[in-house]
Every structure is written in C-alpha cells, then in structure tokens.
Amino acid sequence: MDGLKFKGEFVLECLEPDGSLAWREPIHNMTLLAALTDVLAVYLGAGTQKTTWYLGLIDNSGFASLSNADTAASHPGWTENTAYSGGVRPTWTPGAAAGQAITNPTATTFPMTGTGTIKGAFLISDSTLGGTAGLMFATGSFLSNRLVVSGQSLKAGYSCSGAGS
C-alpha cells in the first residue's frame, strides 16, 4: 500500500520564574484534514503556501475532545488559552527540513499572565490571539492536564515528519 503519512509532536516545558523546570511533556499530534488538503493543493495544485506559522495553547476549561475535522473557525470540543503576554500567538520558527522532518530548533515562549489549566497545543497560520482565521495544521492534547500560574513561562517546540510507504 502506498501512502504519505505525517506525524508530529509538540513538546511543552513549564519554567518557574527562576528558570527551574516545573514540568515537561511531549504530545503526539494529529494532522487535521484541512491541512492535508492544503498540502495537496500547494504541492500538486495551484494552492498558496503559508510561510509563517504560530503556536497556540488549548485550554482545559470546557474541553471535550479534539477532532481531525477541527479548523481555525470551528473547533467545538475546545477553546484557546490566551492568558499569556505578547498580544499575538508566538511564531513557530522552523529550521531547514532534513531527513523528511522539520522542527523549531529554538523553543517558542509563552510568558503566562494568568492561572489556568493547559490541555494541549496547536499549530496555525494566523497570529491573531483567539482568532479564527487561517489554516490550523495540527492539534494535540496532554494525557493529563497541566496547571500553569502567572509568572511561569511555557516553552514549546513542534516537530513534523513525513513518511511514504
């Protein structure tokens, strides 16, 4: 059977104000259906490449589920956590793709300004904090919820790899 498969992983680290590690957890992600369609449109059709990507946080409040049909405009099983400074979603800055993989060599930072519970993360092409435009590429959730408090920082990495069979 031939096919192209994507797999990815978010890695989040929570740092205390003094820089010590509070917790670290990897999250396996799901690549969303709209993202797979977009990949085909860009590489095999006349689609337009998205050249800048952003990371966002999934809030545990009201969390029900993630779905591969989630989009930036519609993700009824969850909401975005926006309790961090900066006014926009932080940019995911990848290094060069190599060995069928791409990752951000320098972690993206979320300086937390509120207390809450983080359920997971997502990758999206729109920087607007809480915005519903752009293409959502991937989502992932923790196996258990992760508490954050004001003054802590979350460091986030995302890696994506592809394989053909």
List keywords for this structure.
1 helix; 165 residues; mainly beta; five-stranded antiparallel β-sheet; six-stranded antiparallel β-sheet; single chain; globular
Explain what the structure shows.
With 165 residues, the protein is mainly β. The chain contains one helix and eleven strands; from the N terminus they run βββαββββββββ. Strands 3, 4, 5, 6, 9 and 10 form a six-stranded antiparallel sheet that branches. Strands 1, 2, 7, 8 and 11 form a five-stranded antiparallel sheet that branches. β1 and β2 (21-28) form a beta hairpin.
What is the element layout, followed by pairings?
Layout: E1 4-15, E2 21-28, E3 30-31, H1 33-44, E4 53-59, E5 79-81, E6 91-92, E7 101-103, E8 108-111, E9 116-124, E10 136-148, E11 153-164
Antiparallel strand pairs: 1-2, 1-11, 3-10, 4-5, 4-6, 4-9, 7-11, 8-11, 9-10
Summarize it.
Helix content is 7%, strand content 45%.
Mean pLDDT: 95
Order of helices and strands: EEEHEEEEEEEE
Q: What share of residues are in beta strands?
A: over 45%
- Main pleated-sheet profile: 6 strands, antiparallel
Please state the CA-atom Rg, rounded to the nearest Å. 16 Å
Shape: globular
Number of strands: 11
Report the span from N to C terminus.
7 Å
- Number of helices in the DSSP assignment: 1
Structural class: mainly beta
Report the uncertain regions.
none
- Helical fraction: under 10%
